[in-house]
Amino acid sequence: MSVQERKRRERAERERLIVATARELAEQQGWDAVTTRRLAERIEYSQPVLYSHFRGKREIIGAVALEGATEMAAAVRAATAAVAGPRERVAALARAYLDFAERNPAVYDALFQLDGGLAYAREDTPEPLKDAFAALLESLGEVAGDGVDPGLFTELFWASLHGIATLTRAGRLPPEYAEQRVRLLVNRLAVA
Amino acid sequence: MSVQERKRRERAERERLIVATARELAEQQGWDAVTTRRLAERIEYSQPVLYSHFRGKREIIGAVALEGATEMAAAVRAATAAVAGPRERVAALARAYLDFAERNPAVYDALFQLDGGLAYAREDTPEPLKDAFAALLESLGEVAGDGVDPGLFTELFWASLHGIATLTRAGRLPPEYAEQRVRLLVNRLAVA
DNA sequence: CACGGATCCTAGCACCGCTAGACAAGCGAG
DNA sequence: CTCGCTTGTCTAGCGGTGCTAGGATCCGTG
């Protein structure tokens, strides 16, 4: 049975290679450049091999998104862990979030902009996505204010961050005042 | 010279037809369904005719976006005109904005999600876009608070609305609590 | 009336996501 | 050891995309 085991391992390894390559290619040249042909060429297999791992391009995007969600959750937790006050934690969270979006635009797109075939805000939402939201909730729930549902507050704060992230990257917002926007957002939305 | 004049008119008319048809098709079946072939068929001309009016699909999207910007500015001004207090005006603005995004998803996408080849937040930004931002600024500037730049505040508020609009429509936010999110946003961000 | 320029269409390019079917390699059974 | 079968991979191709070259046709003008 060790032969089958080895094959299983190799297959899993190749799947990781596909996702990593897709991500890399998207990060380098944008998702438009991630075609099944180019992707297949980069991993040095033919196109149909991709379809033995994923149903289609959507699922590949989805896989990158899940990977990104895990990393984002970690980034947010790392940024907030060492900070003392609740409001300062939220400011750190906001900066970490926007920083992640800026440094990993393709991953961020896979998560929130493109269709990766993932379910959001439901029971059958994949664990990494739930956990990423949970990571936000941990810090944001503390500053929701009296009588305000922490979940609802987190959604709102997150939506604001998302709006800033996407509009900035699309050139709709001048990047110079990023820090001031964050400060204003935290000052107004977060309650002591 | 009247013949040339008539031709010029007919040409302009056909251009409007192209934009209107693209918008209609996008609103009915999504932008993915707006292919140059389908569009050409609907306006009962061949594909190359489209390219005698626009450089490519991008520019058609851009044209729809400009049309949408004008309408959105009007919608926002109409919603805020009859409302008395500054904060109530802002609440009305927020609802009008989100309502516009929900009722015209394809137009909203053309404006802020897709690449229409338009310049934003610059001198050479097309007038309708500047005016749409101005429409937001008119009401939002009043509640920026002391020492806060009205433009910066408007950008932030707008980004929040944009985040809510996109995440809601993409199924990332449950639609039930839309009104509560708006109230919370206005209560916290807008200063009396 | 005949010409010439504007206008439009047919046909085709290179690319896309995706899949059917041929082919080879490697396993277990006799 | 050999045969047959499963499993894995590839070649080739389908229908679609955005876009364009080049020929035909129409129509106002001299």
TrEMBL record, chains A, B:
Lineage: superkingdom: Bacteria
UniProt KW keywords: DNA-binding, Transcription, Transcription regulation
DNA-binding stretch(es), residue numbering of this chain: 35-54
One matching Pfam family: TetR_C_33
Record domain HTH tetR-type: where: 12-72
Protein name: TetR/AcrR family transcriptional regulator
